[in-house]
Amino acid sequence: MKQAHAGAQAISRRSFLRLAGLGGAIYVSGLSGWSSAAALPGGANEDFFFIQLSDTHWGFEGAPNPDAHGTLQKAVAAVNSLEQVPDFIVFTGDLTHTTDDPQERRQRLREFKDIAAGLKVKNVHFMPGEHDASLDHGEAYQEFFGKTHYSFAHKGVNFIVIDNVSDPTGAIGETQLAWLADELRQLPPQARIVVFTHRPLFDLYPQWDWATRDGAKAVELLQAHANVTVFYGHIHQEHHHMTGHIAHHAAKSLIFPLPAPGSQPKRTPLPWDDAYPYRGLGYRQVAAEAAKPMDYQLTELPVLKG
Question: Domain named Calcineurin-like phosphoesterase: which ranges (predicted)?
């Protein structure tokens, strides 16, 4: 898919219903069919919310973030200061910045894990980004965080983590696609499904490596289900897109923002602004309300608490 096609399907901010602001804007992402799904028997449909943090790139050093050694800790403090404790936290990849040195890679993963352990919420889900896993097919990552693709359930919602980075070509691969098909085969068509990936599953801007080589195969499998939403990272900015009835939401980074797809010749980080430190960085709260089962509320929050 070329950029123009992707842009035609992208969701503008105006297409989301602005509700309020508390450190960040709140948007509602409509999920068609959610009401009927909520009425399914046996589902523990309760309000809950989780936090998405992404692209921390622990180990990065450079002008785009002069506080590279302190930003992740500030985000941990901000999450810990939330008045309401989230049900769980998910990191959507690029926990560390890439390095050719296997020992240094492990040291960065170890340091990242130690800092993340400071989160008050102990139900934390991790997944790799290409910076963590593409040079060794996820070997070092798995030593610290276990499987790179897995599923879990929470209060009536089925969560599926897809690894589209351990293959250095940016592919999911036939083995994992077969696993995904089997996972989906066990769920009814109206099941509520949330997918976490690092790269976008659609061709956002392949020229900048913002795509998954065989992502269309995963989307095709997911299309058979009525209630699917995808949250991903990789592009270091908030972005919303639809593939059919499936909404895809990218999160901001915690190290440096990147430019809009195709907006400049190269995919170079946006410069740090001393007048507005941490601008373009942040994390996301995702709320599911059983009383309003048609909606997810996405709240973009800043790195600094308060």
Answer: 50-237
